[in-house]
Each structure stands twice: as C-alpha cells, then as structure tokens.
Design a protein that fits this description.
Length: about 375
C-alpha cells in the first residue's frame, strides 16, 4: 500500500462487510471489491446499455461500460494524486451505473413512472440493490457482499424517507454527513467523463457542430490553445486535442480547489471527513463553465429531435413491458416469477426490466407484442 493520507479509507478504518469473510490474500479488501464488480453479470450488461446513443446506432459511441471505465480512470488518477484510496475510487466508479435501465435516463424515467405507487425506481438505489441482493454468485450470501464504503459511494443520493429503509447506509442522509473523499471524487469524475465524452460523441454523430461548440468557453479556449500548438490538424485530431485539454483542465482545477479546502479544514481522520463540508470541488469559475457546457448539451444533444425520437420509443417499450408483466406475472421468466409470488410483483418486474440490455428489451417487446414473433 502506498503512503495514504490519514483520512483516506483503508482496510483498517473500514466498517467492513455485512457478512464476515476471511481477509483476501494477495490483494486489499477494496481491490477484492473491484474484482467482484468486474466479474459480475450486471457489469457485463453495461456493454449493451445506452449512454446517450443506443448501442446499435454506431460502434464507436460510448456505452455504459466504456463510460464507467472512463469514470474509473479519472477517479483513480485524482484519488492517487491526493493520496487517497484509488482502489476504492475505482470500485465505486465501475459500479456506479450498474443499476441503469436500458435506454439510459429515458428508460429510468419511464420505469420510475411505472413504479410510482410501488416505491419508485432510481438507478442509484438499483445499483446498490444489485450489489447487495440481486447478483447470484456466492454460496454464502446474496449479492457481492461489498465493503461498507464501496456501497456508501454507490448510493450517491437518497431521500431521507427512503434512507430510513437502508439502515446504517442510509444514516448519513438523515444526519447530513458526507461520504468518503473517494466517493466525493467519483461524483465529480462522473461529471468530467460524461461532459467530455458527450461532446466527443455529439460531434462524431454530427448532431453537434464545431461552430456551436466554439460558443462554449470551456471548449473554445482549449480549441484555441490546441490550434496555436498544432495549426494544421485534421478535424479528428483537433477534437481530441481539445477534449484532452478540457479533461486536464478540469482535473487540475479540481485538485487545486480540493487541496485548498482540505488544507483549510485540516482533517486528521476519516471521521473528520464525514463531518466536514464537501471537500472535493471545482473552483467557482470552473463550476460556471461546466454548467454552461451542461446546459448546452441538454438543449442541443439530449433534446435533439433524433435523440428524442429514440427516447420516446424507449419509454413506450418500458411502459408496455411493465404493463404486460404486472398484468400477468406468469409471462415473467421463472426466476422473476418466484420473486413476484414471494413478494412484490411490481418490484420483481422492475428488477427484470432494469436488468435488460437495450436490444434484449426490444426483442422482449417484439416477443410479447408482435404476432408471428417467437
Ligand atoms: Mg455515470
């Protein structure tokens, strides 16, 4: 173990696993968590789930899987530079989107609407549900039995009402305590990753243009810098030289601001982090630029008519599937039928639908609704 800050999460100060297990031999507890996540079924499914573009729209667009790997890269770099536990940051980042439905946010919104009277659906809570209960891989327990701090990082937000159902893990939302710095890093690494790769994918798809992005300061000033250094680059190189500078600037900004905040609070232990204000943050100036970029992406990419057409289709698919299964649970595969009989039909249906990949949900929709399809 490299020399970590005294307030980093370690095997020694961790609150451990729900079910006690013998310690790992040639790796740390958090490396073991990361490995369990990588080997899980839910992790492999990320390859076929939408980030912004549906998986079959093109081979080069980000999927939930490549997004999660990019978040892990950014989170690990930041954690390492701050002498924090980069294995924990990596584990949280790789697991943070496990609970996503097919078709990204459109799918989640549709499933949440279907589940309104049954406790709702939120991908964050679903990620936790997967690692705590739904993965079936071990003889001794359900789920992956991850370390407390990994689970804490996965559960990014939670309403105080819901938090009560989550025992120890929910307590921080009721008491207003902060999660570890490693978890705080993952939140912002997620933002850095998607803002930048959505610009890249938006340009690649042709839904965004360079002329539009030249109006956005964060992009424009780094494009200018790249042009100054390499005046005659091809379009692809220019885009990449710009985006890599944007990522670099955001990481550098975050390291500087967070470093200052930590110095001001001077935490000594992990407990000091829990009671301190948010210590991982961008400067006000960078926050503003990020906000402008986000608004731009929402208006011009996520609400582009071609994306909205897919979004509308996705909502219909999810709503139809939910209605068909809850109306007649015997249409569910046996494993989910069992869950439906023993408990809550709506929740078992939501678990089944959330676990689907984009194309599997489309296939299931055809199987249920199109005559002549097997
Ligand atoms: Mg994410």
């Amino acid at each position: 173990m490299p020399d970590l800050a005294s307030y980093a999460v370690t095997d020694g100060n961790s609150r451990g696993r729900s079910v006690a297990e013998p310690g790992p031999k040639a790796r740390s507890e958090f490396q073991r968590d990361r490995d369990r996540i990588v080997h899980s079924t839910a992790f492999r499914r990320l390859e076929y789930k939408t980030q912004v573009f549906v998986n079959h729209e093109g081979d080069l667009f980000r999927t939930r899987l490549t997004h999660s790997i990019e978040v892990a890269q950014v989170a690990r770099s930041i954690a390492r530079a701050m002498r924090l536990n980069d294995d924990l940051a990596e584990a949280i980042a790789l697991a943070h989107d496990l609970g996503h439905t097919p078709f990204g946010h459109a799918g989640q919104d549709a499933l949440n609407e279907c589940m309104l009277e049954h406790g709702g659906f939120e991908h964050n809570r679903q990620s936790l549900r997967i690692v705590d209960r739904l993965e079936e891989r071990y003889g001794a327990f359900d789920g992956l039995n991850l370390m407390f701090e990994t689970r804490e990082g996965i559960l990014k937000h939670c309403s105080p009402g819901r938090a009560k159902e989550l025992g120890d893990l929910g307590l921080r939302f009721i008491e207003g305590r902060r999660p570890s710095l490693e978890a705080q890093i993952c939140n912002l690494a997620d933002e850095i990753a998607y803002n930048n790769h959505d610009v890249d994918d938006g340009l690649r798809s042709g839904l965004l243009t360079l002329e539009q992005l030249d109006e956005i300061s964060l992009f424009a000033r780094h494009a200018k810098e790249a042009d100054r250094e390499f005046p005659n680059m091809s379009h692809r190189r220019r885009v990449h030289e710009t985006i890599r500078r944007m990522i670099g600037a955001q990481v550098t900004d975050l390291l500087a601001e967070s470093g200052q905040r930590i110095e001001a609070v001077a935490p000594k232990t992990l407990e000091d982090i829990h009671v301190a204000p948010a210590l991982i943050a961008f400067t006000g100036a960078m926050q503003k630029e990020n906000h402008t970029l986000k608004t731009f992406l929402r208006e011009n990419l996520y609400q582009h008519y071609e994306v909205l057409r897919m979004t509308a289709k996705a909502r219909r698919i999810i709503r139809d599937l939910f209605a068909a299964f809850t109306e007649n649970p015997r249409l569910l595969p046996p494993q989910y039928q069992e869950m439906a009989v023993s408990g809550n039909i709506a929740r078992a249906t939501a678990d089944y639908i959330a676990g689907m990949t984009d194309r599997y949900s489309m296939k299931e929709h055809r199987r249920l609704f199109s005559v002549g399809e097997l």
